[in-house]
Amino acid sequence: MSAVFKREFRSFFSSPVGYIVVAAIAFFSGLFFYFINILGFNPDLSYVFGSLFPFVLIILPLVTMRLFSDEKRQKTDQALLTSPVSITGIVMGKFFAAMLVYVISLMLMIVFAMIIAFQVTPDWTIIIGNYIGIILLGGLIISIGLLISSLTESQLIAAIGTLGISFLLILMDSFAAQFSNLTILTTVVNFLSVSQRYGSFTSGIIAYDDIIFFLSMQALFLFLTVRVLDRKRWS
Amino acid sequence: MIEVQNLSKRYGSHQAVKNISFRVEEGEILGFLGPNGAGKTTTMNILTGYLSASSGVAKIKDFDVLEQPNQAKMNIGYLPEQPPLYLDMTVREYLDFMYDLKKCKLPRKQHIAEICRLVKIEGVYGRLIKNLSKGYRQRVGFAQALIGNPPVLILDEPTVGLDPKQILEIRSLIKSLGKHHTVILSSHILQEIEAVCDRIIIINNGELVADDTAANLAKKYSNDRRLLVRVAGSQEDVLNTLSRVPGVERIVSQGEKEPGVFEFSIEPEEGADVRREISERIAARNWAIMGMQSKEMTLEEVFIALTREQLGTTKKGGRSK
Predict the structure, then answer these.
(1) φ, ψ of residue B226 in degrees (nearest 5)
(2) Least C-beta-crowded within 10 Å: which of A119, B30, B192, B229?
(3) Interface predicted TM-score (ipTM)
(4) How far apart, in whole angstroms, are the C-alpha atoms of residue B95 and residue B117?
(5) pTM of the model
């Protein structure tokens, strides 16, 4: 797993992808920080997190799109699958590499929090809650991206597919609101609602069941990725 | 070292490999021969654990590829048809990565340097794989298979894309590796298989049609037992002398091929080896044998005969339905 992780992480930064992701997230978070917090004399960072979120949603599929589709296209998966590493190890290596790139791109937010801390005492629970929330949600999108990437040889399809499914997950509540007379649907959607659970993080509520929800959703998609790769050997 | 029992692989309705069984002993170089689409690559992919068999067992060093995949894979170096290279890495980074991936325990620098020397890629060690020619890429792929010094090497068309000089180099490398490794080598270049391999397996339409040494294959499938002998001596006398050799069924003169040298076509009885007797009798008469040739089939002829035969039987099967 560590070999795959190291290679994958390095390859993000031996191609422009890693730099573009970090630069784009840094640029937009800096922009929002400047307009909302500096110009607006506002010590609350959750607006920056909130505005950053749609960009994360668009950028993360670009991080995950090549992870498996490219291996298949260039036939390098033959090296991975014939090496003494389990498929789970390969999937986890790639997942953590993408996570690390993502977390690095969010590092700038710590600097922003410190700038605010020089002036006033910021609400740390809200900042930490936002941080955990955006990392967990990003992790979910990355795990979805891995699954879609393992299903296709085309990076474009992987990126668009991941984007579509991520949007659907986040907009699920609004769709369900159209059918408010169907109580079963509302109950299910409320339980599975990504945006509601993410919302409680942004208001500083760090609840175990939300953390477990996100982690288990990630585990589910990673497990499905392992199954997809394993099933290819049998077909 | 390698054991394959009743291996089958089915892709949907297409049966790519049908009930193949064979063994490869330690230190043996086995040639895998077959027309395109015969199932060579599929069999190799199953042996290396890249694909799973629909039924049957494949064992590497007593480790079942399906049951104990990691132990089995630890003992295999695999060079697939298209070398699995990451184009955005340098040769150094790539070999380092493969070293980690294979969980190799040998001293890293020394081991990788030795492999690079063996396959002659020291000169491109720092270059991006993207910028290498086909021949160098193939060699980097070969280097990757050698990492960890695995006892079993599985090479799928290792000389594709190389120039004639490189082909000879790689062939002699495989031969020298064969002293300490068990090698399975697929190719559709018959001369290559003949030059390198101790034993040959021919696969056609997913079925194993032959498993023997090149010489035995040629003998076994050759119906033509004729000997062509050129003798410097008088035509009539030679005919008289040789027709009296026990075991000679028929002898025909083919006329004068060189000044004073006649060629004779000799048909021995089945199972009889008349070569020694012929040469002794000719020597006794103070004539000279200027050439003796048995009309055995070449590997190429055997291959064509075997793969064609197969086509014929499948056609018959189709008709009877």
Answers:
(1) -65, 145
(2) A119
(3) 0.86
(4) 13
(5) 0.83
